[in-house]
Write a structure and sequence with these properties.
With 263 residues, this protein is an alpha+beta fold. The protein has helices at 3-11, 20-36, 93-97, 125-128, 168-183, 194-201, 227-237, 239-246; strands at residues 12-16, 61-68, 73-81, 115-123, 187-192, 208-209, 214-215, 219-226.
Length: 263
């Protein structure tokens, strides 16, 4: 096991939000980030009764929370939107608000039951300041879903020095992989800030753009990638990051139990 994985285990825990109590924590974090801190446009606190940010996709989504082990606080969340079994023809948000090119990815031909859209990936602003770091007044503090590039465990890392820190984006993607394993998801969709996709690329997690930027809670672009493609690339070229997102192979959709690697 590598230092990146050890840092992940030391600082973070991925918690499946599979109870009403945990789901309330998910919705409260989203309310804090999106409606109180207002780090993305288009979210109105008045439309969130009980200070819970929810939408019509939540009832057919899977959610995880990220717990910061040193304090026990929940500091982030992400969901994957699954096909709605009660409305098989219901469109994903990317189909409603994106402008995907069918020649790059024809979403309608993807098997819906094996396809999920990654959504509502956010981290609370207080977590950025947990170590008492001085911040310049007015410095941007964005949600992960708007390209939060703050580094969590160590000093700032550059693209040429990937391994100097564990990024919160990688932690949230560990949650995405766990949910994808549980539901047999083989295809990921997302509408994200291109800067976030560049950040994910440092760990081999980049998605393929399938359309032009659109104004959807800020400027974003529609993306698609096959889970197999990502995990294979990470296993061969970014093995330390692969250990983090798959928990050393436990949640890899591609490997059998006797193939899981524990270093």
């Amino acid at each position: 096991m590598n230092d990146l994985y050890n840092s992940f285990q030391r600082f973070f825990e991925i918690v499946m939000a599979d109870t009403a109590e945990l789901l309330d924590k998910v919705y409260k974090i989203r309310y804090q980030v999106l409606c109180v801190e207002k780090r993305l446009p288009g979210f109105d606190a008045d439309q969130c009764p009980g200070m819970l940010e929810k939408d019509s996709y939540d009832h057919h989504s899977s959610h995880v929370l990220v717990k910061y082990r040193p304090t026990g606080d929940y500091i982030g969340t992400v969901r994957i939107i699954l096909a709605d079994s009660s409305q098989p023809d219901k469109l994903f948000p990317i189909e409603l608000y994106g402008q995907s090119d069918p020649e790059l990815c024809d979403i309608k031909t993807l098997p819906r039951i094996q396809t999920a859209e990654i959504s509502r990936a956010v981290v609370i602003g207080q977590f950025d300041r947990r170590r008492g770091e001085d911040r310049r007044k007015g410095e941007r503090r964005k949600a992960l879903s708007n390209s939060n590039t703050n580094k969590i465990v160590s000093h700032e890392r550059r693209g040429t020095d990937r391994r100097s820190a564990l990024n919160i984006a990688l932690v949230l993607m560990a949650g995405v992989v766990r949910m994808s394993k549980q539901y047999g998801i083989r295809n990921w969709l997302s509408i994200m800030d291109p800067a976030l996709n560049r950040l994910l690329s440092y760990d081999g997690l980049e998605f393929d753009p399938i359309g032009p930027p659109v104004n959807y809670h800020g400027m974003r672009r529609p993306y698609f990638v096959k889970v197999e493609e990502v995990l294979t690339r990470m296993y061969t070229k970014h093995h330390d990051a692969w250990e983090v997102v798959t928990d050393c192979g436990k949640y890899d959709l591609l490997l059998s139990s006797d193939e899981k690697v524990l270093n």
